[in-house]
Design brief:
327 residues, 21 strands, mainly beta
Length: 327
């Protein structure tokens, strides 16, 4: 075969791999060419109330050998990768979609602590939030995310995702927005799965009827699914405050419940570590605020227990799981 033909064939083969195959319910396959190596990091999110854009201006990724953060330690300087060319609109990467922040970057084998730095907003520069009243700088008391420790092994691909639940982590005090670490998950892509759920329409109607006096502006309700550790009872399901109240259990993740093009009430949560979760549902999401525990007189409550769901990762991670609440 001529060299030009070989090159065309190789390109076509790569395109076919990129299109995927099978039933679409599995992540990366084991037989799609040479095994990838190095470190890959993705960014994904769950949306926040009343926000149309949240753009993070990245700064640097710091990898510190031997588990020590920052500075010189025992002769091991941190590795600092420039990330300043990345400006990520987090609301464009939801569910099982993720922004490729780092792709198969070669790192010498060893153990590292990872810290991802971002640039807070200031004037027309840095990170920002768009909402119904315009554009606002995004602040942070600690403009970095401590991602934890990873063990890099020679000849292996290490793929992780930072999942940000912005309903929990984005705070607005009426004057400015601040991004906090609450509601963020650092997930190994090899041992995680995604969830697509549905809520029976009768639950939607019942919740709105039973809570008619608690509707939000324009008599609207905000329908939300909450995920808790498996075995959490309805009475134990807490709101999205940074700390659960005594005897309560904080949610692992949340997701809007909305109608799709078929009229089904659906929700989705991406990048969940494999295991069992309990689903809670409410139409009173507009009464749940990330910076406070909602008192009984606030009216907020989880409406129904949506049952237990087992998240499976599949052989290589990224399995798509389904669940139905009611019906």
């Amino acid at each position: 075969m001529k060299p030009g033909v070989c090159r065309i064939a190789a390109i076509l083969a790569a395109l076919l791999v990129g299109c995927g195959g099978g039933d679409g319910h599995q992540g990366e396959g084991p037989n799609h060419g040479p095994a990838p190596e190095g470190l890959s990091i993705g960014l994904s999110d769950a949306p926040a109330d009343g926000v149309s854009h949240l753009v993070l201006h990245m700064d640097a990724l710091e990898l510190t050998p031997s588990g020590h953060m920052g500075g010189h330690h025992a002769g091991s300087e941190p590795i600092v990768l420039d990330m300043s060319h990345h400006r990520v609109d987090m609301l464009a990467y939801q569910g099982d979609d993720a922004y490729p922040l780092l792709h198969q970057h070669h790192i010498e084998p060893g153990r590292y602590r990872l810290r991802l730095h971002w640039t807070p907003g200031s004037g027309d520069h840095g990170s920002y939030v768009d909402d119904g009243s315009g554009r606002h700088p995004l602040y942070g008391d600690h403009p970095y995310f401590d991602l934890g420790e990873v063990a890099i092994r020679a000849g292996e691909h290490h793929h992780f995702t930072l999942e940000m639940d912005l309903r929990q982590g984005l705070h607005h005090n009426g004057e400015h927005y601040a991004l906090e670490h609450h509601g963020m998950r650092w997930v190994d892509n090899g041992t995680m799965g995604h969830l697509k759920g549905t809520v029976d329409a009768s639950w939607i109607a019942d919740c709105e009827a039973d809570n008619a006096t608690l509707a939000g502006p324009d008599s609207q309700f905000v329908h939300v699914a909450y995920l808790y550790p498996g075995g959490t009872t309805l009475a134990q399901m807490d709101d999205i405050a940074p700390q659960a109240e005594e005897g309560q259990v904080a949610p692992v993740a949340t997701s809007w419940v909305h109608q799709d093009h078929n009229g089904e009430w659906v929700f989705g949560v991406g990048f969940l570590p494999a295991g069992e979760y309990q689903v809670g549902y409410t139409c009173l999401g507009h009464l749940d605020h990330p910076d406070s525990n909602e008192a009984p007189d606030s009216g907020f409550a989880l409406y129904r227990d949506g049952g237990t769901v087992a998240i499976e990762s599949g052989d290589t991670g990224g399995h798509h799981n389904t669940h139905r609440c009611g019906g």
